[in-house]
Amino acid sequence: MTMPVETPLMQARDLKVHFPIKRGVLKRTVGHVRAVDGISLDIRAGETLSVVGESGCGKTTLGQALVRVLEPTQGSILYAGKGKAPADIAHLTETELRPYRSDIRMIFQDPFASLNPRRRVIDIVGESLRNFGVTDEREVETRVGEILRKVGLRPEYMARYPYAFSGGERQRIGIARALAVHPRLVVADECVSALDVSIQAQTLNLMQDLQEEFDLTYVFISHDLSVVEYISDRVAVMYAGRIVELSESEELFARPRHPYTAALLAAVPRPDPRGARERRRLRLTGEVADPANRPTGCAFHPRCPFATDRCRAEDPQLRAVDGRTVACHYAESLDLKGVNADAA
C-alpha cells in the first residue's frame, strides 16, 4: 500500500522580494534589487533546514519574507500549521496574519541590538504573551519564568535589564521571546554569528534540546558552514537571490554538486597535515553577483572556473540530480570535493 505523503509545514512557491531603485527629483523607479528571485522551497515539520550563502545572497530577506516581516513582491507561502488546508499567508493583511503570528517566530542576529535596553526581561519576553491574549500579569510572570528556565536562565533574572547579561545570555533571552507563545516554525537569522565559539556550541545544543522538547521546525540562516554541518537536516545554498543547490546535509557536505557549494565548503577550516587539500582548493574570486544587475545566463559564471559559453548564455534551472536539486548545467560531470574527501 502506498503511504500518504505528509504535507510540508510550509511551502514557498516562486517567491520574489524585489526592492525598487528610485532616482531623480521625482523618485522614478529605474530598476529593482532582486533580493529573492523566484524561490520554491518545502519546509518539513520537525526538520532543521539551513539556508547558506555569502553576504548579499538574499538569505536574510528570504527568512524575513517567510515570517512576513517583509511582504513578498510575488509568489505564495502556504502554511499548514493550523490543522486545516494550507493557507497562503504571502499577501495577507496584518489583521489577517494575526492568527499565524504565534505559530511563526524569528530569532534575530545581534543579541546586543535586538533587545530593547529600556525594558526588563519580563517585558521583552512577556510582550508576545500579552499580544496573544494573556492578560493576567501573574500568569505572564509564571510563564516567563518557565521559559527562562527552559533556556537555562534563572527566573529571578526577569526583573533585570539587557545590559546585565552577556552576549550568550542575551541570545537566550531572544530565544525565550521567540518560544514564549509555543510556535511551530522558528526562523533563526545568524543567531550565533555574534557569539564566540564556546557560546555558539552551548546555544546550538540548547536549540536542539528545545527543538526536541517542543517539536519545533527551524529555518536556520547562516554563512558559517561549520555550524550548518552540525545542526542541519537539509541545506539550501543561495546565490544572487536563488537556490542553486538543495540537499540532505550529509550528502551535500560529502559531495557537493554545484561549484559555488564546493567553493563555500572549501573555506571550512579542516586539519590537513599533508597540505593536499590546500592545493586542490576551489577558491572564490570576484564579488557576489549584483542583484540589481544579474549577469546573463548562470549568475555564478563570472566566478566559476568551469564556466562555458553555455553557462554565459543559458540560465540553468533547478533539476533533480542524485536525490537532490541543483541549478548547474554540468552537475553530473563535475568532480567536486566535499569537506570529508580524502586528501589526494
UniProtKB/TrEMBL annotation:
Residues 21-265 form the ABC transporter domain. Its main location: membrane. GO terms for molecular function: ATP binding; ATP hydrolysis activity. GO terms for biological process: peptide transport; transmembrane transport. SMART domains: AAA. InterPro entries: AAA+_ATPase, ABC_transp_ATP-bind, ABC_transporter-like_ATP-bd, ABC_transporter-like_CS, Oligopep_ABC_C, P-loop_NTPase. Keywords: ATP-binding, Nucleotide-binding, Transport. It is a peripheral membrane protein. It is found in: Cell inner membrane. One of its GO terms (cellular component) is plasma membrane. Pfam families: ABC_tran (PF00005), oligo_HPY (PF08352). NCBIfam families: oligo_HPY, PRK11308.1. Belongs to the ABC transporter superfamily. This is Peptide ABC transporter ATP-binding protein. It comes from Devosia geojensis. The lineage of its organism: Bacteria, Pseudomonadati, Pseudomonadota, Alphaproteobacteria, Hyphomicrobiales.
